[in-house]
Amino acid sequence: MEEKTLVLIKPDGMQKNISGTVLARFQKAGLRIVACKMIQLNEAILREHYDFLTEKPFFPEILSFMQECPVLALILKGDNAIALTRELLGPTDSTIAPKGTIRGDFGENKMRNIAHASDSIESAAKEIARFFKPEEVFA
Ligand code: ADP
């Protein structure tokens, strides 16, 4: 099924200057860019985006990490885009992510794990609307 998913190259991915490498992996797998921009995230949007984590002890650290520098926000489109993107990323914890996955190859730990990708059709729809205006999406 053709799907759209929201990807954020997080501050660690931007600081390591590997956004092109990460994007190339998604593109090699057949995904296409239908929207793309840099955004400096703020606390309000992060509280919304990570609302299921706000009570966790590590939430302040996530807030600070995700504001270290601007992120690259993308909407990728393709067959099975949501599961495919997460498969290419690997599990949340970079230390157990297999080599060959983006997080396994470039991530450091559970928090600094290079990129975010939507995890369901419902969250993709919400996240796309959170980060992009309809006129910024070219598909
Ligand atoms: P994913 O990004 O793989 O969907 P989650 O939705 O569980 O993972 O968590 C969102 C983000 O919060 C993670 O990508 C990571 O940056 C951060 N995070 C999750 N769990 C932890 C943790 N135990 N310690 C620090 N940061 C965490």
What does this structure look like?
- With 139 residues, the protein is α+β, with helices and mostly antiparallel strands.
- It has one domain (2-136): Alpha-Beta Plaits, CATH 3.30.70.
- It is 40% helix and 20% strand.
- It is built from seven helices and four strands, in the order βααβααβααβα.
- The chain has a four-stranded antiparallel beta sheet.
- The longest helix has 11 residues, at 121-131.
- It is globular and about 40 Å long.
- The mean pLDDT is 98.
- Adenosine-5'-diphosphate binds at residues 53, 58, 62, 92, 110-111, 113, 116, 119.
Order of helices and strands: EHHEHHEHHEH
| CATH class membership | Alpha Beta
Strand percentage lies at: 15-25%
Structural class estimated from helices and strands: alpha+beta
Q: What is the architecture at the second tier of CATH?
A: 2-Layer Sandwich
For the record, give the distance between the C-alpha atoms at the N and C termini, rounded to a whole number: 15 Å
CATH level 4 superfamily: Nucleoside diphosphate kinase-like domain
Q: Spatial order of the strands in the main sheet? A: 2-3-1-4
Hetero groups bound?
adenosine-5'-diphosphate
Radius of gyration: 14 Å
Instruction: Average the pLDDT over all residues and give the rounded result.
Output: 98
Instruction: Describe the sheet with the most strands.
Output: 4 strands, antiparallel
| Silhouette | globular
Total of DSSP H or I helical runs spanning 4+ residues: 7
Helix fraction, binned, reads: 25-40%
Question: Which fold name corresponds to the CATH topology?
Answer: Alpha-Beta Plaits
β-strand number = 4
Number of domains: 1
Q: Which regions contain 5 or more consecutive residues with pLDDT less than 50?
A: none
